[in-house]
Amino acid sequence: MTVADFIAAANSHYYATRDPLGAAGDFTTAPEISQMFGEMVGVWIADLWTRAGRPPFHYVELGPGRGTLAADALRTLARFGGTPLGIHLVETSPMLRAAQLARLPDAVHHDTIDALPDDAPLVIVANEFFDALPIHQYVRTVDGWRERMVLRRDGGLAAVPGDVPADDAIPMSLRGSPQGSIVETAPASAAVMQGCAFRLARHGGALLAIDYGYRGPAVGDTLQAVKAHRFANPFADPGEVDLTAHVDFSALAIAAASAGARVAGPIGQGAWLRLLGIDARLTILAKGAPHRADELASQRDRLVDPAAMGELFKVMAACAPGWPRPEGFGAIGESL
């Protein structure tokens, strides 16, 4: 099978059979690190919604984990007078659905974005969602570009070049890359982004995507596996490790723009959080709980420090035509 099909099958089993988050799981996401992350998302929504004229809207989250981000964001939004018409979570894992309902008992679950409501603008949040979607990988061989296929070899699984020429799948700027180079594409991610952007263009609203990634097109093998907070062989234990790949934000921006949305970013997560006011929020929290001041500062640093999550993680927004430009991107944010 292709690498993309392998990722889809492995992650489907993985997420359906466990809660992978937290110290007892395989990885930790930003909302689980600190409440300040979800609160800054709530501030971002509140500001954009207010400048858009406070229209009725639905809150949507793609791959919402345990519901921690949504709970923190919606609590913050409520302080500014914002109450969504509905809370809609796109999630297929039974275990994570249960955890989400424990925090958000009024939430409605959906298997795909196609089932989302179309009677009002949508404000969509996708934190560490696109990195878990399947990618195709292509390798430059002596005979040209070939898609990488996963097959059994020497008692295990390995990714090897296929037999069918795949030069047409490679961006022109990368076709001359040296032998052994790997190029990744993510049509599944582009399709989700485009589908969401079509909704925004028709009904209004915005999408906020936060993930680790880069501006493409680029050469490189970014497929990785994590188990018990350590890197693992992606092909050694299928369905029992978390498979992800870095997100090409340029490709997401092109998909959003092609559907009529306006794009802002990407910008580094650290800069985005600081522009939204995370340092001021830290000061308030530390004053309220002086005994936790160092702990809270450490959480903030992990989110914004360039050596931690501050630069590797990027933030991009897609907004409906007629909606205001979102905050948090500033002069150092660029629109693609």
Structural description of this entry:
The protein is an alpha/beta fold and 336 residues long. The protein has 2 domains: 27-132 and 187-228 and 245-319, Rossmann fold, CATH 3.40.50.12710; 136-185, no CATH class. 34% of the residues lie in helices and 25% in strands. The chain has 10 helices and 15 strands. The strands form 3 sheets. Strands 1, 2, 3, 4, 9, 13, 14 and 15 form an 8-stranded mixed beta sheet that branches. Helix 5 (94-103) links the parallel strand 2 (86-90) and strand 3. Helix 3 (35-51) crosses helix 4 and helix 9 (278-288) runs antiparallel to helix 10 (293-304). The longest helix has 17 residues, at 35-51. The chain is globular and about 60 Å long. The two termini are 34 Å apart. The model is unreliable at 332-336 (pLDDT under 50).
Core attributes:
single chain, 336 residues, alpha/beta, Rossmann fold, 15 strands, 34% helix, globular
Quick structural overview:
The protein has helices at 3-16, 30-33, 35-51, 68-79, 94-103, 187-203, 249-258, 269-276, 278-288, 293-304, and strands at 58-62, 86-90, 108-110, 122-127, 136-141, 144-153, 156-165, 182-185, 205-214, 224-227, 230-232, 242-244, 247-248, 262-268, 313-319. By secondary structure, the chain is of the alpha/beta class.
